[in-house]
Amino acid sequence: MTSERIFDNTEIAFSLKSDTELERAYFLFKMISIEPLVRIGTAATNFALKAHLPIEGLIRSTVFDHFCGGVNEEDCLPVIHKMFEKGVSSVLDYSVEGKENEAEFDLAMQTVLKIMDFSKEINAIPIAVFKPTGLGRLDLYEKKGRGEAFTKKEQEEWDNIIARYDAICKKGQQNDIAVLIDAEESWMQDAADDLVTNMMQKYNTEKPIVFNTLQMYRHDRLDFLKNQHDLAKSKGFYLGYKLVRGAYMEKENDRAADNNYKSPICKNKFETDKNFNDGLEYIIKNIDTISLFAGTHNEESSYFLMTLMKDHRLENNDERVWFGQLYGMSDNISFNLANKGYNVAKYMPFGPVKDVMPYLIRRAEENTSVAGQTGRELNLITKEKQRRKLSLTS
Hints:
Blueprint: H1 10-13, H2 19-32, H3 35-50, H4 56-67, H5 73-85, E1 88-94, H6 102-120, E2 127-130, H7 138-145, H8 152-175, E3 178-181, H9 186-203, E4 210-215, H10 221-235, E5 239-244, H11 249-258, H12 269-285, E6 290-295, H13 299-311, E7 321-326, H14 331-339, E8 344-350, H15 353-369, H16 373-393
Parallel strand pairs: 1-2, 1-8, 2-3, 3-4, 4-5, 5-6, 6-7, 7-8
């Protein structure tokens, strides 16, 4: 491991946070650390929103403003510019989930295209992102993945999905903006993977523009990466991959148990961590043909990637390697990496408060289930509060 332990520097980590914002962050993570409170809060929030109670202002000034950039692109600009002054880029993520009709899928595509035009003028937003189910129905991906025949109407829907992917990836190539395509549940992923591979073949002819996402808690993803690499070498195109650990573990295990098939998830955290790091190593060894976006809140994996880059004599700011974290979390990783000249981007969710609530609820639930994440945030915030207090008295 690299000897320089940079992630404990809270002065750099929280340099953009005022004392008030630091207090709010402490309060939020303290709340999130109490699991029954998250469950009660989630139920109460859902009820209040459905009953049209006037709570949006409260949500906006607390949890929304901590984890989201704003309600639209322009609203996010002050935060984007502030972070970019510290060397941290933004990935604007239109985090409206659970939509089901063609008009809403078209709106999601138009929003991504609009962001890409917006990004063209702003160096701080070098990457676009979308979710497969933002552009089409999950059931359709699932049916396609099983190899079942579509009805005439379903085929039209599928053709629309392909056209939406194509419009976004084409714009990425035209504007020289990388396009990250998120991964979702394993039972819809095969169809999404095939679609993304086709887009890579079409648009990654000179450099990686289109990036697929590999959830490394799946034990089959490293083999998938190697097979894709063989295909790319034989067909002459570049690969781009975002590596994450994964976000649907309980759902995946429950479904596997209910339907009596082997879970796609690694047996334990150790195997997941190893799989993730092996993926990093494979990509860095093949960096001339595969680019990497390492989406991780794990300090050891971040140090491991820094060491790999050093061992392979890559500059800190090599354009083929990016580190990424979610806005509102792991600032100790993001800002300290940026301070050392690495390419870092924060995923910045935005959208109307009401529509972004499913995302925010998932974030809160994930934080309660990810061992140590909330505790680490609280420790770092406490350390910074004490540091500021001491600097005032000294």
